[in-house]
Amino acid sequence: MNLFAEIKSYVGFQQLDADRLLRLQPVVEPHFEDVVNEFYDRLMAHPRARGVFVGPEQIERLRQSLQDWLRSVFGGVYDQQYFKTRQRIGRVHVEVGLMPHFMFGAMNLIRNQFVEILLDIEEESVREALEEKDAPGQAVQSVDRILDIELTIMVQSYWNVLMKQKLEIPAALATGLAHEVRNPLNSIGLQMTLLERKLRGAEVDSDVYEPVLEAVQIELQRIQGLNSEILDFAKPVDIEVAPADLNELFEEIQRAHQLTLDAGGVDMEIETSGEIRLECDRDRLTQVFINLLTNAVEAMPEGGTITVKIDGRESGVVVEFIDDGQGMSPALKYQIFDLFYTTKAGGTGIGLAIARKIVEAHQGSLDVMSRPGEGTTFTVFLPRPH
Ligand code: HEM
Fold first, then answer.
1. If you take atom 39 of ligand 1, which residue's CA is the nearest one?
2. Cα separation of 171 and 357, whole Å?
3. To test the ligand 1 pocket, which listed residue (50, 62, 73) has its Cβ within 8 A of the most ligand atoms?
4. Are residues 138 and 104 in the same domain?
């Protein structure tokens, strides 16, 4: 289910509401100007809300924008285009620095005005505009639902910015640092090689220096490895697509990892809906799938079963990795895709973040569903290119 469909279903918005709002439009439209005027008068009366606006011309322009907005609220068409426009309007408010809590009061202002309008207008005229079977109370319900949708999308805009920054800020900091340390690290490596050569040339017992040099080299390589992983992560993922057989791909992965699976006492079962071919970057996706598989094995320290379900649909391919391990708390689920978040000793916390980036480069999505004690399911959706 896409996000807009999910929001609609959550607030209980149905086609019935869409039809009703459209039929109400001629009844409520004559009141739009008053609604808008009241809206801005109230906002301007509040010092902090007023502070978001830059001047009277802007407010004049916004009065028109809000009337257009109201017209589309009662426009009867609530499709993906509607959702996109609303998301854009939401972003405008984040960008002007409006704090999210203002949205609740503002939407309530609009809501209350429509409740009053619908109650004030003679019951008969509302009933006429609606179908015989609809009572005026149901009109209010439909207005409530569409405004709930509007409010949800507004709040969602703040969430989206937060989520984006949650990923982008650590990535930007880490990349900056990785660039800074790359040259000094290489220089240390070079100096170490020179030192080793000099020591070998001198009459020094190798037992004295070799263990030290070796320890330093190992640590250096570890930091250099991490550094290049970070720099790799910062690069855009370039994908090269070609037709691939996903069943074959999973059989190959299973063969290549059979020893690891056996060692962990894990059975891997592949369930497929039939022959599945997809235009994708086979190598990059293999990296994603191996990462998810390894995670699943690690989530089951006592062993268990991993089921990989591959489902070819018209819109794309869904691959689920289902383990029967310990599951995750909601707080953990919220963090696992974060860069550098790891619960494993020696883990870098880059694997899942890069897996998601690769899937998104295919215009797809990578999500997780999990409950403590009930195992975890990672779902990869890869759309078919149009
Ligand atoms: C129910 C709540 C609200 C709705 C439906 C709404 C609607 C809109 C719309 C349709 C736009 C035009 C966006 C565009 O096409 O570029 C807009 C912009 C804006 N809104 Fe709101 N708004 C709401 C709440 C608020 C509140 C509470 C404030 C301030 C306290 C506010 C301040 C602004 C500002 C500053 C802009 C940017 C204007 C510009 O581009 O110069 N809005 N709003």
1. 58
2. 12
3. 62
4. yes
**Mean pLDDT on 302-325:** 94
71, 194: one domain: no
- List phi, psi (to 5°) of 136: -55, -30
Report the amino acid identity of residue 34: D
Rounded distance between C-alpha atoms, residue 287 and residue 358, angstroms: 9
Same domain, 202 and 336: no
Can you give the length of the chain in residues? 386
Q: Read off the pLDDT of residues 46-61 as tens digits, 9 standing for 90 and up.
A: 988 888 999 889 999 9
84-97 burial, b at 16+ Cβ within 10 Å, e below that, comes to: eebbeebeebbeee
Determine the atom of ligand 1 nearest the C-alpha atom of 85. Answer: 15
Confidence at 129, pLDDT banded by 50, 70, 90: confident
- The answer to whether the CB of 221 falls within 8 A of the CB of 229 is no
Task: Residue 37: give the domain boundaries.
Answer: 3-162
Residues with CB under 6 A from ligand 1: 43, 49, 52-53, 58, 62, 65-66, 69, 89, 92-93, 96, 98, 102-103, 106-107, 110
Q: Coil, strand or helix: which one is 348? A: coil
Among 121, 141, 162, where does a domain finish? 162
Residue whose token pair is 């855009």:
236
Do residue 212 and residue 248 come from a single domain? no
| Contact between residue 66 and residue 113 where contact means Cβ atoms under 8 Å apart | no
- 183 with 158, same domain: the answer is no
Report residue 152's pLDDT band, with 50, 70 and 90 as the boundaries: very high
| pLDDT band at residue 127 under the 50/70/90 scheme | confident
